[in-house]
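Record type: monomer structure entry
Structure origin: computed from sequence
Chain ID: A
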Amino acid sequence: MTVEILFVTLAALQVLDVATTLYVLRKKAGQEGNPVMAKLMDLFGPEFALLFPKAVVMVAIWTFRDYYEMWHWLAMIGVYVLIVGNNLKIVLYRDWE
């Protein structure tokens, strides 16, 4: 598996995380579970608080991509699969009022 495919997979999960988190927040179906992100959202708004740190981290990951072993990539991807899965569970199965 190439680094580019792993990076694109991770980037796609980041986009899904932002989209599903914003959807859940706008529907008032949940709240941000990460206290640091919740505080950033209070200070700067949810869009900036979600997008800016993710962009910085993704640039850093791309910059240092040659230093990661396969298990690093799989761990990062695995964490975001769980996060996006949780968000999708709320989006798909919540009883919207």
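Annotation 1: The mean pLDDT is 92.
Annotation 2: The helical segments are 3-26, 35-44, 46-63, 70-93.
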